[in-house]
Design goal:
It is built from 4 helices and 6 strands; from the N terminus they run αββββαββαα. The protein has about 190 residues and is α+β, with helices and mostly antiparallel strands. A hairpin with a 2-residue loop joins β1 and β2.
Length: about 190
């Protein structure tokens, strides 16, 4: 394969890795009925006049399956953290415990589980579409190489490699979605 084709394939794989990481993060934010910092770590807390993600001003520890303890680096942030979590309207119970914030995750109803599973399926489809869009864009770039004099057999081999990459990353998105669905249904 030519260096141009290798470069295009490498670029496609980088884009696909980023898409996979993005959707993995989105799956992590879907509440599964058990305590997980992923649901609240990006909430903004007022820190010296600047909205700052919670993960930058506190540590998290899972106390039990349904309880999370948020320990701020600076004790004066307790009220701000409690307020930010309460205002996020995530259905979590929040309370102050000394210099920390205790967050309780209620059990999910069967209806909520089904709704979250549907959300996971929708996100998985978005992820597959994102991967296919990367493939489409790269196929267009490969076709341009043919017009610029690159031999067709090399371009065809590049297209086959691109399809293998696409299949690999779609399978990984499906695996992540399946794991999240299983987590939602078995908690």
């Amino acid at each position: 394969m030519t260096p141009e084709i290798q470069s295009l394939l490498k670029g496609a794989e980088e884009h696909m890795k980023k898409s996979l990481a993005h959707y993995d993060e989105l799956f992590g934010k879907i509440r599964a009925g058990k305590a997980s910092p992923a649901l609240i770590e990006n909430l903004k807390v007022e820190y010296y006049g600047t909205p700052t993600p919670l993960r930058h001003v506190a540590t998290f520890s899972v106390q039990d399956a349904r309880t999370l303890l948020v320990q701020p680096f600076e004790p004066h942030l307790v009220k701000s953290i409690e307020k930010a979590i309460a205002e996020a309207n995530l259905g979590l119970s929040v309370g102050t415990e000394g210099k920390a914030v205790r967050v309780s995750f209620p059990s999910l109803t069967e209806e909520q589980r089904r709704r979250f599973v549907k959300q996971v399926k929708d996100l998985a489809e978005e992820g597959r579409v994102a991967i296919r869009n990367i493939r489409r864009d790269m196929l267009e770039e490969l076709r341009k190489l043919t017009k610029n004099g690159t031999p067709e057999d090399l371009v065809r081999r590049g297209q086959e490699e691109l399809q293998k990459l696409t299949d690999k990353y779609i399978a990984q998105i499906d695996r992540l979605a399946g794991a999240k669905e299983q987590e939602l249904l078995t908690v």
